[in-house]
Amino acid sequence: MKGLLLLLLAGVTGLFAYVVSVAQSPTSATAPEKSVWWKETVVYQIYPRSFKDSNGDGVGDLRGIISKLDYLKTLGIGAVWLNPIYASPNDDNGYDISDYRQIQPEYGTMQDFDELLKGMHQRGIKLVMDLVVNHSSDEHEWFKQARSSRTNPYRDYYHWWPAEKGKPTPRFSFFDVNNDAWKYDSLTKAYYLHYFSRKQPDLNWENPKLRQEVYNIMRFWLDKGIDGFRMDAFQYIAKDTTFPTFPIGYEKQIIKYYSSGPHLHDYIQEMNREVLRKYNVMTVAEGAGSSPAEAMKFVDPDRRELDMAYHFEGVDYGYVQGKDYAYLDPAGYDLVKFKQIYTKWDKAFAEKGWGTVYLGNHDQPRMVSRWGDDRPAFRAPSAKLLTTFLLTMTGTPFYYNGDELGMTNSVYKSITDYRDVAARNQYKHLQDTGTDLALFLKRLNQSSRDNSRTPFQWDATANAGFTTGTPWIAVNPNYTTINEVAQDKDPASVLNYCRKALATRRQHKVLIYGKYQLLDEANPHIYAYTRTLGKEKVLIVLNFSPDKRSWSVPSTLKPSAQALLNNYPTLKVSSVLALQPWQAVVLSLS
Question: Is residue 286 annotated as a catalytic residue, yes or no?
Answer without folding.
Answer: yes
